[in-house]
Amino acid sequence: MRNDDALLLQQQSCLNYNYSVVNPFAFLPPIAPHIAAEIDGKIIDLDLLQQLFTRLAGENDTVLVEGIGGWRVPLSNGQTLADLVRALELPVILVVGLRLGCISHALLTAEAINADDIPLAGWVANHCQADYASEEATLTTLSKAIPAPLLGVLPWLPGLEVKQLAAHLNLKLLPPR
Fold this sequence. Notes:
By secondary structure, the chain is of the alpha/beta class. The protein folds into two domains: 75 residues, no CATH class; 87 residues, Rossmann fold (3-Layer(aba) Sandwich), CATH 3.40.50. The mean pLDDT is 90. The chain is globular, with a radius of gyration of 17 Å.
């Protein structure tokens, strides 16, 4: 099993890593990771994830860690995505899918990240449908309420165009690490 997102990240990397280093856990059903792992008879090992991250961070200027399932999603043994972020000592870039309900979801997630005392480095608005009608009002509301900079607004595209999406981001707003 190979995940399309992980394959894309692997392809964009400047170094050639084995897929199992980039994505040591991949499951077929698109469901919460702890449930998918249980169905597959596996346990998501946070220690292994931390070891692989440490290796990648030691060999690269930048390492992007993509979250899965949301801030509070269980990974295994009572540990959540938040626990992994804390263990890796990473700041968070919150991605907000622009659709009905996104304001509440984004604000609750930003609140939870803050309550967990994790740095929220910024947020990105992502058009996940072609016809989101209230973009301007949503961006205004979230910009006033989320205590981090808006790093960009990604347009809806029928296919993935990395360079085109990257042109919509302003990562210079991120604090130095």
